[in-house]
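wait is this the right file?? whatever heres the structure
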């Protein structure tokens, strides 16, 4: 795993990774270099045979998770360049979703535009009390380009998402929790990140294979009917009966002992 990036800090501790977008002076805004760095890292993690059990993604400093896409860079883009930029951002969000382990977005301060979209591509979001979400692109004559028109509607419902995107308004922490966009809130960034790793520790005691397959099944079902999604669920459920983890988990339950999972 490469950890040497111009715009990212990547720290591995045991089975977990802390990924920090590191452009604090620009409020961690997403320019092309950030997206290319994220794409390279996430591609390598998706292709790696190394066993990892979780990731926390956050932004450098106290003011912003990711304040949005880099407007200065975007302002001079041609149509073709803008399409490539949107496609690159969307590729990064898909790569987050495809990671075979849980990803928790830890949001403090601003998570606007592309920042909100990156947070939504994590498995779930923790946030500090000063967190602010939104898709304000219409105020610039644009629309969300990294998945906001699709993921926000699936997370909070179409009509609520339309109201937020059409108005471009900010969503503060109490409303974000009420909408189900944020799972938990915290008084400080340190407390939030510590709790995120406690959550990943709890998850890591379960079968890594079962957690990974659960993630894949739920993501696959996003664009399917209930009947189609349930068919995928049943197949994955049955396939796990041929795994070491399933045999070990059920045997340990019968024997009243803690299981020793291997992730296969």
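ok assuming it is, sequence goes like this
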């Amino acid at each position: 795993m490469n950890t040497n990036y111009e715009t990212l800090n990547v720290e591995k501790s045991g089975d977990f990774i802390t990924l920090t977008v590191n452009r604090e002076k620009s409020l961690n805004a997403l320019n092309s270099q950030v997206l290319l760095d994220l794409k390279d890292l996430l591609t390598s993690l998706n292709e790696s045979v190394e066993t990892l059990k979780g990731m926390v993604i956050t932004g450098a400093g106290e003011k912003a998770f990711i304040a949005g896409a880099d407007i200065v860079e975007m302002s001079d883009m041609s149509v073709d360049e803008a399409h490539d930029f949107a496609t690159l951002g969307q590729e990064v969000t898909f790569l987050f979703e495809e990671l075979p382990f849980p990803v928790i977005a830890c949001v403090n301060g601003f998570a606007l535009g592309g920042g909100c979209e990156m947070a939504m591509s994590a498995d779930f979001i923790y946030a500090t009390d000063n967190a602010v979400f939104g898709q304000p692109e219409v105020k610039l004559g644009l629309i969300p380009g990294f998945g906001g028109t699709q993921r926000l509607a699936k997370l909070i419902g179409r009509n609520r998402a339309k109201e937020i995107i059409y108005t471009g308004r900010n969503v503060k922490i109490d409303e974000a929790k009420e909408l189900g966009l944020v799972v938990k809130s915290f008084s400080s960034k340190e407390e939030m990140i510590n709790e995120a790793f406690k959550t990943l520790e709890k998850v890591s005691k379960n079968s890594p294979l079962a957690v990974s397959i659960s993630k894949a099944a739920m993501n696959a079902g996003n664009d399917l009917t209930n009947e189609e999604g349930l068919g995928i669920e049943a197949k994955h459920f049955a396939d796990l009966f041929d795994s070491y983890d399933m045999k070990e988990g059920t045997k340990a339950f019968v024997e009243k002992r803690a299981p020793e999972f291997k992730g296969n």
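The mean pLDDT is 96. so i think its the right one actually
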